[in-house]
Design brief:
Shape: globular
Largest sheet: 8 strands, mixed
Radius of gyration: 27 Å
CATH superfamily of one domain: Alpha/Beta hydrolase fold, catalytic domain
Number of strands: 45
Oligomer: single chain
Strand content: 25-35%
Helix content: 10-25%
Strand order of the largest sheet: 38-39-41-40-42-43-44-45
Number of helices: 13
């Protein structure tokens, strides 16, 4: 007893009078303490300024004088815009276009701004602050989607409904470039699955000489319609969603090129379209051809195709194949000199993504970056200085830094300092960048830096309000050896206050799936994990094999066998916890959302006895229910891998459930359909297994806004009831 009292006394200062535990009300009110407010800069072409939106005001910042100036309130544009009528049927696809709301003119004296569905030109003259002049380019009840300034700044392209248009800025003449668009024939428009699973955020591209536009056409008539229904009014409203599931027909995709003055589209001869995926499109610098990255349906073969826009004839520059699948990278970067292009690939040993340099004949010249680390993103290429700027985790798998390297792969330099995660926005020529930085002990800050990494000013200083107000538990990043000797990274959050002589319940927060990395040396703010810690729980997360950031070899163990390898690694993590001495092995819970919801169910029914309780959010319960591009990449076609689909489904072993179970789901989830939860409920009920379910009414994959308090309360009550 004495030892307990001494330890408790040592822990009590964590709840000093000036600090408070994290509560549900704090999270629901948005008091997450993520850190000070940063800026999302849109850089001017000359590197000397950037535009941004702050507090609903359009602003511009001058680098030399380090001053910011208000151009105008965004409300001025909103008043001028024509209100877009509410759609009778909910639009599932237009939300996914990655539009650029602010674009600079090459002259640097004007901005193209998209707001409330209309287009405006804002003038950066020396007017009174907040009184900048603007010209309204469009004023239609139909929204202009995905607008793009032409390289010569004379025109703006955009999409209305399902067709592509171009507007001449001086004359205001609008030319309709396509005329056959419909609900199932999408011109310069994406369906649901393309942006979700191929990270394709646009469907049209200007030629460098501003004379043509390449666009993607998707024929979705064969994509099945999922019968989403809104039940919030007295009568149910059908809100159909075109959504191809594993084995279903995908959209037929083709790439066309059209003259900006109108006329027929020239279709590129890219081969069979019915089972092909168009992952990337870009132009060659001389505007003579487009380069198209085409994948086969199950995504284990990739062709980089060069297509002549005059004839449509095409040749293959690069062909890559993989025994598992190919992760889509960025589009190739073609040097304006015409000497070759940069290509990203995971072809090397270990499957680490790196840069390669190819000649225009499609032959490899040399590998640029090398090592057991991953290139995360290409930021810029300065051809005059022959430098490549990119983000990578070269220093540590749980960090992210900005690097520069020459085209020969020599003289690599890290430009960001401080162990942790850096988010960088680089100016067009690499003269400056903003650096948003944090680690597990340091809340975010944002600084403006020169191209050499030297700090010029602090834009947003470190804000320690959250750590001073709340009794937070500092996350510990730990290394856990996997069964094959690989090092896995986990995050351990101890209860507040913490007594090492006690035995605590554990909540395992899991994701586990491909394309996501959850363990970073990064500030996490005041989130649900800190709520659990304040409530007396150890919170544990682990990135298992199959997750992102460790190379393709690490990731591909899940091939056609989802769930099994991930669970084995998670069980290894549980064994690590049990050896710590302050973990109660009889009170371990598990929770996750989306793939994490799937892993929660899969773990409960395939490892009975390991977990006492599980909360599964928006789970996939049968991979035949999920979208075609994601699922077939990892699981293959259902017709070919029927056993894999069967064994990977939590429904298959529903009768082995021993733990307490709660399932949460939005009834109109557009991503993981509520159908998954209903099928799991049926399997559990047939097996005479008791469980609980809470349904939310939102039309999204996550639960947000006014429903978040209910979510946090339901989750905490569930674990308190079953683990305390």
């Amino acid at each position: 007893m004495l030892r307990y009292l001494v330890c408790l006394a040592l822990a009590l200062p964590l709840f000093a009078a000036d600090k408070k535990p994290v509560t549900i009300d704090d999270l629901a009110a948005g008091r997450r303490g993520a850190g000070s407010h940063g800026v999302n800069p849109v850089w001017a072409p000359d590197d000397k300024r950037f535009a941004f939106i702050d507090d609903q005001k359009l602003m511009v910042f001058d680098i030399a004088s380090k001053t910011r100036r208000e151009l105008l309130p965004m409300g001025d544009l909103e008043k001028a815009a024509v209100k877009v009528p509410d759609a009778e049927v909910f639009d599932w696809t237009n939300r996914r276009v990655s539009e650029e709301p602010i674009q600079w003119f090459n002259s640097g004296d004007r901005l193209l701004v998209t707001h409330e569905g209309d287009l405006f030109v804002v003038h950066l003259d020396a007017s009174e602050p907040g009184k900048a002049k603007f010209d309204q380019l469009t004023s239609t009840a139909e929204q202009e989607y995905d607008p793009k300034l032409s390289p010569d700044n004379r025109s703006v392209s955009f999409r209305r409904l399902h067709d592509l248009y171009v507007l001449d800025i001086e004359s205001r003449k609008v030319t309709r470039l396509t005329n056959n668009g419909s609900e199932t024939l999408l011109n310069a428009e994406l369906d649901w699955v393309y942006p979700e699973e191929l990270d394709l955020g646009t469907a049209h591209w200007w030629s460098p000489d501003s004379r043509h536009i390449a666009y993607l056409q998707l024929d979705t008539h064969s994509e099945p319609v999922f019968p989403q229904v809104s039940l919030l009014n007295s009568r149910g409203l059908l809100e159909p969603e075109r959504y191809p599931k594993a084995g279903d027909p995908n959209a037929e995709a083709r790439v066309g090129v059209v003259d900006i003055n109108g006329g027929p589209t020239k279709w590129m001869n890219l081969g069979e379209t019915r089972d092909a995926l168009i992952a990337r499109v870009t132009w060659l610098p001389d505007s003579s051809a487009v380069a198209v990255m085409r994948l086969n349906r199950i995504q284990n073969n990739l062709d980089l195709i060069r297509a002549n826009i005059s004839t449509g004839d095409a040749d293959v520059l690069i062909h890559e194949s993989d025994p598992y699948w190919i992760n889509v990278q960025d589009a190739p970067y073609f040097l304006k000199s015409g000497k070759g292009f940069l290509w990203e690939s995971e072809r090397g040993e270990g499957g680490y993504r790196h840069f390669y340099f190819y000649g225009m004949d499609g032959k490899l010249r040399h590998q640029i970056t090398k090592g057991d680390w991953v290139v995360q993103r290409l930021l810029s290429v300065d051809e005059s200085a022959v430098r490549i700027y990119y983000m990578s985790n070269e220093g540590s798998p749980v960090e992210s830094h900005l690097y520069e390297v020459d085209l020969n792969g020599k003289h690599s330099t890290r430009l960001t300092a401080g162990a942790g995660v850096h988010g960088v926005s680089l100016s067009p020529h690499g003269a400056y960048f903003t650096d948003s930085f944090s680690n597990v002990t340091t809340p975010p800050s944002q600084s403006l830096r020169g191209g050499d990494g030297a700090e010029l000013m602090v834009w947003s200083p470190v804000d320690r309000t959250a750590s001073e107000k709340y009794a937070l538990s500092t996350p510990e990043i730990v290394e856990v050896p996997a069964s094959n000797g690989d090092i896995m990274y986990g995050r351990l959050i101890k209860p507040v206050p913490f007594d090492p002589t006690k035995k605590y319940p554990v909540i395992v927060q899991v994701y586990g799936g491909p394309g996501v990395q959850t363990i970073h040396n990064q500030w996490s703010g005041v989130g649900q994990d800190q709520l659990y810690a304040s409530s007396g729980y150890i919170v544990w997360s682990l990135d298992n094999h199959g997750s992102m950031g460790r190379g393709h070899k690490w990731e591909s163990v899940i091939f056609r066998d989802m769930g099994r390898h991930e669970l084995e690694d998670q069980k290894t993590g549980i064994e690590y916890l049990k050896k710590l001495g302050y973990v109660d092995p009889a009170r371990i819970g598990i929770t996750g959302w989306s793939y994490g919801g799937y892993m929660t169910l899969y773990s409960l029914v395939n490892a009975p006895g390991v977990f006492k309780a599980g909360l599964s959010g928006a789970p996939v319960t049968d991979w035949r229910n999920y979208d075609s591009i994601y699922t077939e990449r990892y699981m293959g076609m259902p017709q070919i891998n029927a056993d894999g689909y069967q064994h990977s489904s939590p429904k298959t072993h529903a009768g082995d459930l021993q733990a307490k179970l709660l399932i949460l789901h939005n009834i109109e989830d557009d991503n993981v359909h509520f159908q998954n939860t209903m099928q799991m409920a049926e399997a559990l009920e047939k097996a005479d297994k008791q469980f609980r379910m809470v349904v939310f009414p939102q039309k999204s994959h996550g639960v947000f806004g006014m429903y978040s308090k209910s979510l946090y309360t339901t989750a905490l009550d569930f674990f308190n009831e079953n683990l305390k």
